[in-house]
Amino acid sequence: MQHKLYYPNPELSKNASVKSMDEYNELQNFAKRDYEGFWDSFAKEKITWKKPYTKVLDDSNMPFARWFEGGELNVSEQCIDRHLEKNGEKTAILFEGELGDIQKITYNQLSVHVNKTANLLRERYGVTKGDRVVIYMPMIPEAAFMMLACARIGAIHSIVFGGFSSDAIRDRVIGAQAKLIITADGAYRKGKPYLLKPAVDEAISKGGCESVKNVLIVKRNNEEINIVEGRDEIYNDLIDSYSDKCVAESMASEDPLFLLYTSGSTGQPKGVQHNQAGYILWAQMTMEWVFDIKPDDIYWCTADIGWITGHTYIVYGPLAAGATTVMYEGIPLYPDAGRWWKMIEELKVTQFYTAPTAIRMLHKVGNDEPDKYDLSSLRILGTVGEPINPEAWDWYHNKIGGGTCPIVDTWWQTETGGHMISPLPGATPIQAGCATLPVPGIMAEVLEEDGTPTPVGEKGLLCITKPWPAMIRNVWGDPERFKKAYFGDCKKDGKPVYFSGDGAMIDEKGYITITGRTDDVMNVSGHRIGSAEVEASIGNAEFVAESAVVSEPHDIKGESLCAFVILNLTEHAGFEEMSKEINNIIKNEVGAFAKCDRFVFVPGLPKTRSGKIMRRILRLIAVGEEITQDISTLEDPSVVEAIIKATQEQS
Ligand code: PRX
Questions:
Q1: pLDDT at residue 3, as a whole number
Q2: Distance 526 CA to ligand 1 centre (A)
Q3: Taking the alpha carbons of 338, 343, 346, 350 in that order, is the dihedral positive or negative?
Q4: Which of 10, 252, 504, 612 is spaced 20 to 30 A from 379 at the CA atom?
Q5: Does 5-431 carry CATH code 3.40.50.12780?
Q6: Where are the chain's structural domains?
Q7: How many whole angstroms separate alpha carbon 76 and alpha carbon 118?
Q8: pLDDT at 265 over 80
Q9: Residue of the nearest CA to atom 13 in ligand 1?
Q10: Residue nearest ligand 1's atom 22 by CA
Q11: The domain at 521-650 falls in which architecture?
Q12: What CATH architecture does domain 447-517 belong to?
């Protein structure tokens, strides 16, 4: 179904960074005509270089693109120091704790915090350029100080989302051979203190983390925690004695900035590596184009710093653009479903960026809550991470945006570093559920595997056919996996191009609609989860022989997980009891967000003769749809009937 087009509000267009489709086309044509010239002009204008680059793009060894070679910079200077002269007293981070405590941290104060922290890491723990630091923190300003302090001394941070288990911390510590873990005692959630530090202790006690020499702990809720003498130290006790002046390391454009692990279709999560110059340039440019950030704006992205959205659009992008970025510690339902709307009123938020899952949830549990607050400060709304259904879009557009704020439906990924396909609020007519057009400079195309364009209205592969500055540079320590995972599926003009893993459809206007993953990656509440990870965890229940996990549509979460499980025992506990036990294992090994909503205990799984599980068939069975595809190629076609029967009996 084609949805109505909403044209940009002329008032907004008048002052927008990109004011019309003509301006959009001019920019995109510039990039098409002279790709390097396009990026050169922005890199020169936007980045404060310590040493100018000598080459814009080196694509001679694709897929390993190199941007702005010869150049040197420091990302923390790009985000802080260069704003101090004119905007030192402007609020950089506007923090609100779940209990209502507010901190306004100016750029001057941020500079002091980051420099002191950088000195502490350097002098006390000997952290230097290229060292890896794992950060496992709640949503408090210190999390941003830690990221920027690492950037200042050239250390590579690897943030582990606070909802992940100790196993995830351990895997990432081992993967990166991290020298230091930075954490907090805990934070506040649902009005109560909760703890993070025990998961770090558990991770280390499991063995294999010998690279870690110290654990630095930020005090947030003053709960009692275990301190290991000689290893663990409290940040708050130490920080005052460090200088607030810190010489920033001069980093080459292509030195790594951070690692962020994300789920893929096979095996364990991949350490996505982002480098310095290209990443920060694109983070800043998209803040200006997609969020149309202006000097007096109060910009709020509700993500967690543990995900790429938090990296690029809470910390690096807004600060590089010299904006005020709101950071909120807690959940949207505390103390009630009006919390976010109250914050928008009180903080006078101008741009609000969140996930469709949150919109659906707040619509369902608090439809009238927005009416209690004045949301007229809002100018632009955004969504990210998953498709937004028309009903949620309409509610967001009308109830939150008063029918006048444009919604930027931003499509991108951990690997892309920043926005790739999105409306520009002053230029692009928007449409519910549609990410619309590539951001200028991005060559996104919907293609067949052989690189021919997919016809209008048909599903194809969403590919990016030219390297872009913020693209993933490598899978940490595994260049072969990098090539295979992203450049193995689609070729254009005989050359491998980046395939996102998403399917998409293009319409006659050139608008791109994302149709969802084409691989075994699932998306629960905007969290990316690989079936292989959950299956590995289920396999650790001693009564499980094998399992296959698929997703099925869910009203609020977008997708929920359904596991088909083969038992290795004939005598066993009840299904309910076993389901609980498996979910406990998933919670401990992956995280609570990866728990399965449904388990079906089955006698077998649909496998091809080469042993590959046909998850497509399981997806159809989960939703009760008829199987029309040919199943004769299965090793044992009769298993399909048996799975259908078990599913019906157990539902
Ligand atoms: O399937 C797409 C979906 O989220 C995936 C990327 O997940 P992650 O790396 O965790 O990054 C999420 C935040 C950028 C994509 O492959 N996705 C992301 N944005 C959208 C989306 N699906 C539909 N519409 C979007 N706007």
A1: 83
A2: 7
A3: negative
A4: 504
A5: yes
A6: 5-431, 447-517, 521-650
A7: 10
A8: no
A9: 385
A10: 386
A11: 2-Layer Sandwich (3.30)
A12: Roll (2.30)
